[in-house]
Protein 1
Amino acid sequence: MGFRIKRVGHLVLRVKDVERSRRFFEEILGFPVVAQNERGMVFFSTDVTDNHHMLAIMPAKEGAAMPTPDHVGMQHLSFELGSFAELQDAYRLFKEKGVKIEYTTYHGVTKSVYFYDPDGNRFEVYCNVPPEEYRKSVPNPYSRYGGIEDELEGKIPQKQGTVAP
């Protein structure tokens, strides 16, 4: 093979209301706007040195159908966070701002929060769990092992064998 994909570069979403979505991605997820264009697109990146844009939004056509859980296409997009404390901060902010959370879970390789943007697109924020930790608790590190709401809310400490830094 003559080429190798280096990384996922960016995602472009069609949205019903560009300003509403811009506020969501700026205020809830903390994505800085790095550019806009004449077609109404807005471009976001947390590190323009490493990636000129990670996400872009553009206006959908008038009357475009909203995504449904059964439609063919993107199931979700995930964003890696640096620590479990950051995952807790994101979860608390989502709750405070009324972001629709679908579920939380311990996957083995990650601890995750799945949520929706204003147009019904599913996203995930997660923090990695080190292999030496998840190997203590799960047979398949790519599965689901239950909700982590109590850990995210600080009601209980992270469970043994699931500790993310």
Note: The mean pLDDT is 94.
Protein 2
Amino acid sequence: MSNARRLLPRKTFAAVAADIGSFMRGPGYDYGVDLADAPLAYPLAFDRMLEADAALFEPLDEAGIPVKGPCGAPGRYMPSRIAGHALAHWNLSLKPAAPPVHRQRFMAAAHWFAGQADGAFMHDLPLENMAVPWPSCLAQGEGLSVLMRAFAATGDRRFLAQAHAAVDLLEVPVEAGGVSSALPDGSFFLEEYPGGRHRHVLNGALFAAVGLDDLIRLSDQAELRARILRDRILASLERNLGLWASGDWSVYSIERGAAGARNACTLHYQLVHVALLEHLARAAPRHARLTRTARGWAKGSRRPLSRARALAMKTFYRVTNGW
């Protein structure tokens, strides 16, 4: 056994090894999706992730819904995994001569989201100190994106009604069992892990903003409440994006871990941030900082020296914080 294996827990060692391979290879493809030719497509390339790794969302149940928990453990219906699987198949279904299985898998997931009580897409797995079941702004946002595409495809107003119900949870404070909170300057924010140790996670708020934007774009009625919430999130990011920046790299959340370590994003999360920021900047072009930040982080992902620095930060965080 090597010295590295003796010093690091197996899970941490495996994560660091995966990081090294990813950061050395650099971006394999652009995670963003151009909606100019396919306005109903989802703006993040879940379909390319699925094509690159066919087992990404497996195993599936009899209806084709992912049943996969944290770190690949089976037996849990995780809303974010179900949504990612659905949106991957949705984008694939938009391609010429797409086989019907893609639309079938998407609609199965859409009905799963439509069947969740009160539009709350809850997690039933224990995590950190959060009481089960717990909500997440990421799950609410991705669920909105699935429901609104199902509504656009079918005209079935049950999907639209469930999307409206899903917005309710975004307005409830964390202290009352919801996901809304505030950044250090008092700006409005939405939490991916309400009550957990990872506060103010950037990608969760971005997915929520995209879901709200989908409700605004794809509804057949004025969506003032969704517009106000989306714009509040974007205004907060416009003022505070620097909290998630370390040079030309993004960090997962704004708090520091043990030993003062910052949780530098993996290359995957860096590219997700770029794609979602670019999409939201197009949706609300007055927020120029979103575009500037996305461009800076995109350049960082292509620079070997920037990736090396981010890898060093990420490795230090994993070693000192255990994951």
Note: The first helix runs from residue 3 to 7.
